Structures are given as structure tokens and as C-alpha cells.
User: Which sequence fits this backbone?
């Protein structure tokens, strides 16, 4: 009896462990969603600000308001209002102010030196200004700092280096502002006592750099307020600017839309001359971020839902199984007078304990999962990356609690039904096996049909789908739901097919079967689908694995291929050329010489080819052109690409499958005649050009080159056929782009040599070009490094999150599969210990029993893996072409292609195989522990 | 009377929490060939343990057991399996049928296992007929009554024509009438088929049919009675 109890507990030990695993994963994943979302969005936001600074050269952490006060206009109140506003506006918007700078100035007016210097007789346009906190952000190049007081009617001021030079000043120069008259009617006199520049090169204090202050004479702010401001009755025309600074890195992603809303309110409210809020720089960053944020948030959630549902199903099934084992006890409890509510309370408490124990483990696990997500580089592929800053906040707790409540509900729900059973019902029901409801109503088949319908309907609306994605929509949840539904329902439908397959094999081989496989076939066929539970998870594991890996590989490969295509070559840049423009400008003032033209000095491009690391180098001229004789009314977007065919063929990156013939064939055709051109296909389809036609293209200067059409191409390195833009109404507009590919030497012969791009093929690393640029001080006007952009793709939050979640879902399903597998086999073997004893007693060898189990494995687990693989491949085939659309951008030029890589499959099946092997070892260990005599004795209890 | 099995001072013990529990202490018995032997005793007296040893399902701590003069306690497991498969049949107290197989398949399975060379179908029917269950051949065990199940078990045990059948409490779960019927079948087997039967029971009402009775108490043989020779 004691042994029986122990064994029963042992059954339950596995169950309890499984329930814990299920709950831990459920809660951890639920919590990891907000944790990862917030952490990665924070990172994305910070990166957007960083990119903005890099691109625009403007510090985005500043909010500016303006006011003006004019003499005799009685608008002092506006000034006071704005001044007050400057103190509160940032906190009203929801930003934390770090600094506030007030820049106040008089209007620009004529100022002239009264020193009587011969070389400075002209008057200059200048103004008196003051900026708070200036002393901490400047260094004086000459002279000294201004004084706070007026000395003999003269105000001390400092000027920027630029103003010093432009106004032709000398130190201690005294200038008089004739139009600015004080209450006594005397003009204001200023003495320049110092010249300053910024003390640090990168200083956010300088919203405008000192060199932009070329007309300002800066005086002490206190003095300015005293002298030029009178909020009772203003005597001078002044304008004031308040710069409120904040740390943009501290902006919470969740606050972004609130900040945008609040800011807009101020910008709209204050738009008069005397009271204005300019649209701050951070607005465009935040607005763009909100768009991508919505996409990221939706994607992460949609991707996680299937695995959360699976986890709930898993918990439900385990509780169900556990209940089945405990029905006896429950019935006993009932017959001994326990009420229904008492039994439910017992199970409720049990589930509360399980979920809370899980929660304790789940929180840190969730945080860990976030870090794993953050380091995902591909499917089942991780790299070391600066880890995410994971925080546990209210939202995380909320998600966790929601998961706990759902889990408790799932665990207690089956009890409600069973709590009614008494020992009598139990004994009666014991032998009656009713098919579950979903099987009787063919729910799985119906769902499967629905998902198949979904495939057709989505394919029908593919165009519409593309359009919506390009206009910024996030993933259609229905599509993802449909894919999950397809995989899950197909898996369950397959369970109806599995017995048929087994039956066929059994019937064919029945007569010749050895006892072991004979018994195992009957076991599979007549065990009333007890192994279904395990099989479902095995099928889902394999199917999801294949599907997920295909999705991850495909979206990454599409993005990479597109980037490769768009860039054209490994490195593309344009160096700064020396030209005679300076000479042209200087001569222009004296005489207009029609013969003078802008000419460039062509640097030696071949020097790049000699750099170690460069395999080949090509010159590519890109020029906007028009064609003469154009019948279209709208101007066409036509670009010319001048190339030298041989070097271009050696250097450009191009997927040869994009054109019907190898690109070299086209290059050879082009190279065969100097006057030949290749045209983009739309010249043929839209403008109705044909091979052999003449075409004349014209540059900005009106110089025309005539050429003969030798061929048409759909794709060409770096050529984007369609350019998408969003119109003001929010609709998606497409602009057809035309391309003419011509021989560079021909173009240069007519138009002269103008700056062209350098394309370089590297031997893998692009470091050499950076080294070279640093060494020689090479300057670029354009620069694109493919390898750096490739890294950017992998760091993209959307891709990373997708890869991370796909990997995580797969690992979760794998764990569930493993648990399901072990539970099924351990239960099945324990329940069959007596049977094994009988087999052994009848003279069956231990090896035969193992053979029997192996055979059972082949036709349940093995078959599941095969079925899973088939479903996975089908799901990939049907859904990946649709799903990949969501990861494409408006810059997608090359066709989207579903990609499978063997290395992915090897890795996938390696992982699955390894896990199953471990399970088998555990099983083998359990089997060898069975002793026949003990097994037989079981029957005595 | 020729003995098919003889035991010599066999001792069997199991580890328990406070040391070793001796289930069998120096058992010396012999099983007469083609006769029906009953091992009698209360629950826990060691009769099942003894039977497991006799049937080569388990090995004793010490002592030897000879089967046709050969010591099976020192035999390789492979050899013992061979003996179990070809020369021995087992009938158990309960749940002894393979639940996933019909009555017919249960019997046929034993034939498959023993590598029976003849016409399997014919032999199965023969055996089922012997126990009077021809009509229920295609029923699953759960559809049969206790007595019927036990009769299928007997049919299965004799299917491969073993020399000896071990039946552990075959009547324990049956009412006395059905029990008697089962014993009657055993008796007929010894007479008609020349099979040796070893059966454990605590039912005194069945003793009449036996040829030899060993009574066990606390792991020792306390009484021996040979009824059949008288």
C-alpha cells in the first residue's frame, strides 16, 4: 500500500513538475512581453534620437518658445505670459527640464563705431543681446567678460569671433546704436570688451553655434533686463527666446504620444508674433517613433499569442490528466461527505500555490528571456550584444497577474465538472470512454478548413496587403492567427490520420509480425488515443520549428538581399572633387565670361583598387536626366547610370536570378557599342520604346546625347523601379522611376568628367576604407557601407523581436513537447508495468520489450515528427510568402523569396533530436528498473 | 513419482526499512510431473514468492532449483527466458490478460512468442475450445467476466504446449462455482494433456482436486500432503 502511494506520488511528481513548468513559462512569457517591449522601445527611441543628431546635426532635447515686446504696442502682457510659461511648459508637456536658457535681444539696427577709425566708417547691422548662463559655456579669445553695470553711459559687451570679424571690430571699440534711444533720448552706446567662442565643441547649450551670432553684442542678462525691459511700459523693441532643455534619453516610450499631443497643443495655441512655440525638433523623431512603436508592439503581441495559447492548452491537459488520476480519490472524498465546494476549494488552493511558486521563478526568468530576446540574431541564433535594460514595473506585474488568473482558471475549470462525480458514477463511467466533444463535432477539421480558407482569402487580397503594409500598417493579426490555426488544426487533424496509417501497416504485416511489433501495433491502435496528447505537442514542435525558422530566415534574407541590391556594391561612395567653382565665383563679379565652365579635377580612382581588401573597383556616374521628345505631360523621373561595363560587372553585387540572362550578357551587349543604352523595363511597358529605337537624353545644362536602345532590364544594381511616398491625405503614392544605363566613356566624352560614385567590392571586410580615409583625410559626399547596414538590419528591433520571439516560442514548445513526451511515456510505462510483467512471464525478452517500445515510438513519436515536418513545410509554403510582406519596407525592390537553408534545418532537427534522445535515455532508465516479479505483484494490491 | 522441479534449501529475502525480510526460509519441495500441486497458505506466507522462483521469474538469495535436473538459478537470463517461453505457462490472479488484445489474440500472442511452428489459428481455436470459450474469441478482456478471463488466461498458458503451468491464485477473484470450474479444467489438463500444474490458493474447497499440497506459513513449509498417490 505504501509503495502504491509512493508510486502514485511519483506519478504526480511528474505532473506537478509539468504544471510548474507550464505555469512558469506562461507567467514568464507574459511578463517578458512588457519588459522586452519597454526595454527595446527605449533602445529604439534612443537610437532614433542618436540617428537624428547624426543626420540633422541638431540637438533634439530642446523646446523653444518666443515672445516679442514692441514699443507702444501694449503687448507687455504677452511677454510676461510667455516668460511664465517658460517655467512650466516642459513639466506640462511631460518632460524633465535640465536647463533653461533665455536669449533676449533688441531688434537689429544700425550701429556705428564712434571711435573715428578710418578703416571702420561703415555702419553695421547689429543688436544688443543677452543670454543667461553664458559665462559657463564660453571661453574668451581676447579681452575680458562684460561688467554688470553701466559705466559712464556705456554698456560692456562681448561678441563672437564671427561678429568680431564681420563688423570689422577691434577690442574696446565703442559703437553706438543710433535707433535705440533710451528714456532720455540718447542712443545706446556699447563697448566691445571681449571676443568669445564656445568652450566645448559639443555643447547642447549652443542651440545655435556662436558663429551664427554674427550681429549680436552680448551684454550681461541682468543689465539687459534692467536697461531694456520694462514690463509696465516697454521702450525698446525686444524679442525673447527661451530654450528649455531636457534629457531626451529619459523619455519613456510609453510617454511618447502624450508628449507629442501636449507639444502640439502648445504649438497650435501660441502662434502669434508675440507669443509662439516653434515645433520642436524632437517632434519628428517622436512621431516617427510612434509609428514604428505601434508596429513593434502589435508584432510582438501577435507573435506571442500562439505560444501563450499553447501553454494554456498544456496546463489544461496536464490538469485534466492529473484529475483523471485523482478521480478515484475525489469520488472517495465525495462519498465521505465532502461537498462540491470543498473539493473545488482544495483544487483552487492547489492551483494558487502552484501559480505563486511559479511566479517567483517566472519573474527573473522573464527578465532573462528578455535578455535572450535582445541577443537574438536569427532563429536559434544568438550573439552577444549590449544587454537590454530590463525593468520590472506595474505593467509587468499586471501582465503576470493576468497570466496567473488565467492559469488558475484553466486548472480549476476541469474540476468544476468532475466535482459532481461520486464513487458510484465513477465506477460506472470508468469503462465508458466517450470521445471528447471537439472530436465528435469535427472541430479540428472545421478549424482546419477555416485556416485553408484564410490562405485563399489572404492570397486574394495580397495586393491590398502590400499596400497597407507600405502605408505603415502593422502585421495583420488575422494572418498570424490563421497561420497558427493552420498549424494547430492540421496537427490535430493529423491525429485522425495517424491511426489509419498504423492500421494499414499493421494489416499488411500482421501475419509475419514478430510478437514485439505485433503487441506494439495493437497498443497504438487500441490505447484509445492516450498518446494523442504527446503527439500533438511533438507535431507542433516540429511544425512550428520549421515554420518559425523559415519565417526568420526569409525576412532576414529578404532584407539583406534588398539591401545588397539597393546598395549596388559592398562600398559605395562619392569623394569630394576639387573644382574651379571658387575661381568662377571670384571672376563672376568682374566680367561675365561665357566660355568659363565648371570643371572638375578627377582624382585617381584606381588608387582604391590597389588598397588591400579591395577586390575590384568601378566608377558609376549617376545623373538626373530628361529625354527629348517626351510625350508625357508629367515630368518623368529618369536617372542615367554611366558605367564601364567590365569593372561594373566585376564589382556590382547582383542576384543573377533577377534577370532572365546573366548580367554579364547585358553588360557585353552594352559594351559592344559606345552608343548603346540599356533601359529599365518601364521604358518598354509604359513609354513603348523598343529595341533598336533611338533615344536622346539631356542633362541639366541642356546637353543631349543620342543613343540606341539595346535592351531592357527589370532589375539593375541599385535601381528602384517604384518610389513610394505617402501623400498629405495619407494615401500611398507610387512614382515610376526610369533608368538609362549608358557607357561611361560616351557620357564623359559629351558631358565632360563630373563626380561619379566609386563602387568597391571588398574581400569581406570594409575596414580598409575607413583606415584609408583617416590616413589621407579623404572626404566623402556620399558613403554607404553594406556590411555596416547589414549589422543594422540584425539590430533592428522588429527583426530582433521577431527572431527572439520565434526562437522563444520554439523553445517553449520544445519544452512542452519534452514534458508531454516524458509524461506520456512514464505514465504509459508505469500503467503497463504489470503488462510488461505478463509479457516477461510469457517469455518475452527484455530486448523484445524495448523493441516493442521502440516500434511504438516509431509509429507515434516518429510519425509525429514526420507529420510535423510536413505541416511545417506546408505552413511555410502557404504563409511565409504572406508574412514576409509585413517585414518588407517601401524600399523593397527585389522580389520577396521564401528561403530555406539546410543549416537551419540541421540545427532544428539537431535540437529536436537531442531532446528526444534525452527523453529516451530517461525512459530506458525507467524500463531497466522494472523487475518482473515486482511488476507482477502489483496485481495483488 | 518423477519430479519435474526440485528445490534445495532456497531462501528469499527482501530489503525492508529495518533490515531484511525473509520471505522464504529453507524450502525443500519437489513438484511431481504431470500432476497438480497446490501451494497453500495465507496471504504473506510466501507462496507467490515461491512460485515466482519456481517459474524462473525471480532468483533466490540462496539455494538451488532444478528443472528436469538442471539448476535454473544459475542459468543465464537468456536461457531462463527460453525455458519460460517454451516450457512454462503462467496464469495469474488478475488482469493477467493483455487488455489491448482480444481473447483470440491473447492466445495467439503466446503462440507467436513461443515461436510455435504449426497452424496458429487452429491451435488457438483448440485451446479456446478446451476452456469452453470458442464463442467469445473476439471479445476484449474487459467484455469478459472474471471466470471467462481466467479461462482465456489458461487457454493462453497452454497454447504453446508447455510442460508446466504456474497459476497464482487463479480462483481468488472468482466465485466458488467458477473457481471449481477453473480447477476442473486444470485437472483435465493434467490428465488429458499431461501438463504439470502448480497452483497457489488459500481456498480449502479446491484441495480435493490436487495430487500434492504444500502448506506454507511465514516462509516455511509446515505441511506436506500427497493426495493423488493414495
Assistant:
Amino acid at each position: 500500500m505504501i509503495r502504491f502511494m509512493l508510486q502514485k506520488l511519483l506519478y504526480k511528481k511528474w505532473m506537478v513538475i509539468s504544471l510548474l513548468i507550464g505555469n512558469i513559462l506562461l507567467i514568464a512569457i507574459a511578463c517578458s512581453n512588457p519588459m522586452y517591449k519597454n526595454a527595446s522601445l527605449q533602445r529604439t527611441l534612443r537610437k532614433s534620437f542618436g540617428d537624428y543628431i547624426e543626420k540633422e546635426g541638431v540637438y533634439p532635447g530642446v523646446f523653444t518658445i518666443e515672445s516679442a515686446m514692441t514699443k507702444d504696442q501694449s503687448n507687455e502682457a504677452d511677454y510676461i505670459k510667455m516668460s511664465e510659461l517658460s517655467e512650466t511648459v516642459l513639466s506640462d508637456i511631460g518632460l524633465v527640464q535640465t536647463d533653461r536658457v533665455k536669449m533676449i535681444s533688441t531688434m537689429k539696427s544700425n550701429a556705428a563705431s564712434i571711435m573715428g577709425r578710418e578703416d571702420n566708417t561703415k555702419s553695421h547691422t547689429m543688436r544688443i543681446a543677452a543670454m543667461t548662463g553664458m559665462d559657463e559655456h564660453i571661453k574668451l579669445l581676447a579681452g575680458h567678460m562684460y561688467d554688470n553695470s553701466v559705466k559712464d553711459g556705456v554698456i560692456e559687451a562681448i561678441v563672437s569671433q564671427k561678429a568680431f570679424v564681420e563688423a570689422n571690430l577691434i577690442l574696446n571699440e565703442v559703437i553706438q546704436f543710433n535707433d535705440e534711444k533710451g528714456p532720455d533720448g540718447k542712443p545706446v552706446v556699447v563697448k566691445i570688451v571681449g571676443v568669445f567662442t564656445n568652450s566645448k565643441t559639443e555643447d547642447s547649450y549652443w542651440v545655435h553655434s556662436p558663429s551664427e551670432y554674427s550681429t549680436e553684442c552680448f551684454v550681461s542678462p541682468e543689465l539687459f533686463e534692467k536697461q531694456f525691459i520694462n514690463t509696465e511700459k516697454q521702450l525698446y523693441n525686444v524679442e525673447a527666446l527661451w530654450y528649455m532643455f531636457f534629457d531626451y534619453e529619459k523619455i519613456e516610450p510609453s510617454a511618447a504620444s502624450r508628449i507629442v499631443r501636449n507639444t502640439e497643443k502648445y504649438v497650435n495655441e501660441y502662434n502669434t508674433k508675440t507669443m509662439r512655440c516653434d515645433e520642436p525638433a524632437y517632434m519628428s523623431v517622436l512621431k516617427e517613433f510612434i509609428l514604428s512603436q505601434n508596429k513593434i508592439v502589435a508584432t510582438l503581441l501577435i507573435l506571442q499569442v500562439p505560444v501563450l495559447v499553447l501553454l494554456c492548452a498544456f496546463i489544461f491537459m496536464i490538469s485534466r490528466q492529473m484529475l483523471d488520476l485523482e478521480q478515484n480519490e475525489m469520488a472517495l472524498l465525495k462519498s465521505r461527505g465532502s461537498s462540491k465546494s470543498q473539493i473545488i476549494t482544495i483544487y483552487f488552493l492547489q492551483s494558487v500555490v502552484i501559480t505563486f511558486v511559479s511566479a517567483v521563478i517566472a519573474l527573473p526568468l522573464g527578465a532573462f528571456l528578455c535578455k535572450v530576446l535582445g541577443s537574438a540574431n536569427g532563429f536559434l541564433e544568438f550573439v552577444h550584444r549590449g544587454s537590454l535594460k530590463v525593468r520590472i514595473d506595474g505593467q509587468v506585474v499586471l501582465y503576470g497577474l493576468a497570466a496567473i488568473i488565467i492559469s488558475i482558471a484553466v486548472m480549476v475549470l476541469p474540476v468544476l465538472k468532475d466535482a459532481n462525480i461520486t464513487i458510484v458514477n465513477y465506477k460506472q463511467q470508468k469503462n465508458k470512454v466517450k470521445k471528447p466533444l471537439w472530436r465528435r463535432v469535427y472541430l479540428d477539421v472545421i478549424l482546419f478548413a477555416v485556416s485553408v480558407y484564410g490562405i485563399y482569402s489572404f492570397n486574394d487580397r495580397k495586393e491590398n496587403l502590400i499596400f497597407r503594409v507600405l502605408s505603415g500598417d502593422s502585421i495583420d493579426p488575422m494572418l498570424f492567427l490563421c497561420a497558427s490555426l493552420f498549424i494547430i488544426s492540421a496537427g490535430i487533424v493529423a491525429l485522425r490520420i495517424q491511426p489509419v496509417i498504423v492500421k494499414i501497416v499493421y494489416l499488411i504485416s500482421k501475419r509475419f509480425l514478430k510478437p514485439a511489433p505485433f503487441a506494439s501495433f495493437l497498443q497504438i491502435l487500441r490505447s484509445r488515443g492516450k498518446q494523442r496528447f504527446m503527439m500533438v505537442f511533438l507535431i507542433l514542435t516540429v511544425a512550428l520549428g520549421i515554420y518559425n525558422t523559415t519565417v526568420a530566415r526569409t525576412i532576414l534574407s529578404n532584407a539583406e538581399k534588398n539591401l545588397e541590391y539597393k546598395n549596388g556594391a559592398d562600398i559605395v561612395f562619392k569623394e569630394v572633387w576639387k573644382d574651379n567653382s571658387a575661381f568662377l565665383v571670384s571672376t563672376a563679379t568682374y566680367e561675365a565670361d561665357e566660355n568659363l565652365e565648371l570643371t572638375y579635377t578627377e582624382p585617381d580612382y584606381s588608387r582604391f583598387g590597389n588598397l588591400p581588401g579591395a577586390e575590384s573597383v568601378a566608377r558609376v556616374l549617376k545623373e538626373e536626366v530628361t529625354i527629348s521628345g517626351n510625350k508625357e505631360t508629367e515630368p518623368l523621373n529618369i536617372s542615367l547610370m554611366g558605367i564601364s561595363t567590365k569593372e561594373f560587372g566585376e564589382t556590382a553585387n547582383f542576384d543573377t536570378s533577377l534577370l532572365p540572362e546573366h548580367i554579364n550578357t547585358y553588360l557585353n551587349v552594352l559594351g559592344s557599342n559606345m552608343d548603346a543604352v540599356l533601359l529599365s523595363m518601364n521604358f518598354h511597358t509604359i513609354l513603348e520604346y523598343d529595341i533598336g529605337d533611338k533615344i536622346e537624353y539631356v542633362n541639366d545644362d541642356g546637353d543631349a546625347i543620342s543613343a540606341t536602345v539595346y535592351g531592357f532590364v527589370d532589375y539593375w544594381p541599385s535601381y528602384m523601379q517604384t518610389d513610394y511616398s505617402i501623400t498629405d491625405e495619407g494615401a500611398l503614392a507610387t512614382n515610376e522611376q526610369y533608368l538609362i544605363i549608358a557607357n561611361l566613356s560616351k557620357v564623359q566624352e559629351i558631358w565632360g568628367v563630373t563626380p561619379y560614385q566609386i563602387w568597391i567590392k571588398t574581400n569581406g571586410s570594409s575596414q580598409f576604407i575607413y583606415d584609408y580615409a583617416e590616413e589621407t583625410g579623404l572626404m566623402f559626399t556620399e558613403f554607404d557601407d553594406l556590411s555596416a547596414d547589414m549589422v543594422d538590419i540584425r539590430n533592428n528591433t522588429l527583426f530582433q523581436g521577431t527572431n527572439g520571439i520565434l526562437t522563444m516560442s520554439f523553445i517553449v514548445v520544445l519544452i512542452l513537447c519534452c514534458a508531454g513526451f516524458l509524461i506520456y511515456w512514464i505514465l504509459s510505462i508505469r500503467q503497463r508495468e504489470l503488462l510488461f510483467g505478463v509479457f516477461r512471464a510469457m517469455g518475452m525478452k527484455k530486448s523484445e520489450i524495448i523493441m516493442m517500445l521502440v516500434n511504438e515510438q516509431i509509429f507515434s513519436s516518429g510519425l509525429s515528427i514526420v507529420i510535423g515536418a510536413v505541416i511545417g513545410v506546408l505552413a511555410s509554403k502557404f504563409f511565409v510568402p504572406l508574412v514576409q510582406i509585413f517585414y518588407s519596407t517601401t524600399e523593397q525592390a527585389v522580389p520577396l523569396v521564401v528561403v530555406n537553408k539546410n543549416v537551419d534545418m540541421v540545427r532544428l532537427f539537431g535540437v529536436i533530436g537531442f531532446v528526444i534522445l534525452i527523453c529516451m535515455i530517461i525512459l530506458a532508465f525507467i524500463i531497466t528498473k522494472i523487475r518482473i516479479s515486482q511488476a507482477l505483484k502489483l496485481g495483488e494490491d | 513419482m518423477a519430479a519435474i522441479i526440485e528445490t534445495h534449501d532456497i531462501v528469499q529475502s527482501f530489503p525492508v526499512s529495518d533490515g531484511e525480510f525473509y520471505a522464504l526460509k529453507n524450502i525443500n519441495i519437489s513438484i511431481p510431473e504431470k500432476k497438480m500441486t497446490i501451494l497453500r497458505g495465507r496471504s504473506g506466507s510466501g507462496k507467490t514468492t515461491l512460485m515466482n522462483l519456481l517459474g524462473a521469474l525471480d532468483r533466490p538469495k540462496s539455494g538451488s532449483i532444478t528443472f528436469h535436473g538442471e539448476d535454473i538459478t544459475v542459468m543465464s537470463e537468456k536461457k531462463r527466458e527460453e525455458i519460460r517461453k517454451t516450457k512454462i505457462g503462467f496464469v495469474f490472479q488478475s488482469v493477467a490478460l493483455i487488455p489491448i488484445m482480444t481473447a483470440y489474440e491473447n492466445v495467439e500472442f503466446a503462440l507467436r512468442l513461443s515461436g510455435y511452428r504449426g497452424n496458429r489459428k487452429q491451435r488457438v481455436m483448440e485451446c479456446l475450445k478446451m476452456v469452453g470459450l470458442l464463442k467469445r474469441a473476439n471479445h476484449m478482456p474487459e467484455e469478459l467476466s472474471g471466470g471467462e478471463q481466467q479461462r482465456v488466461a489458461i487457454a493462453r498458458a497452454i497454447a504453446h504446449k508447455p510442460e508446466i503451468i504456474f497459476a497464482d491464485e487463479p480462483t481468488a477473484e472468482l466465485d466458488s462455482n467458477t473457481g471449481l470450474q477453473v480447477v476442473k479444467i486444470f485437472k483435465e489438463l493434467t490428465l488429458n494433456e499431461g501438463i504439470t500444474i502448480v497452483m497457489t490458493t488459500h481456498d480449502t474447497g479446491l484441495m480435493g482436486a490436487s495430487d500434492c499440497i504444500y502448506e506454507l506459513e511465514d516462509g516455511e513449509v509446515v505441511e506436506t500432503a500427497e493426495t493423488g498417490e493414495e
In short: The longest strand of chain B covers residues 3-16. Residues 8 and 28 of chain B are 5 Å apart (CA to CA). Chain B has a mean pLDDT of 85. Chain B touches chain A through 35 residues (CB under 8 Å).
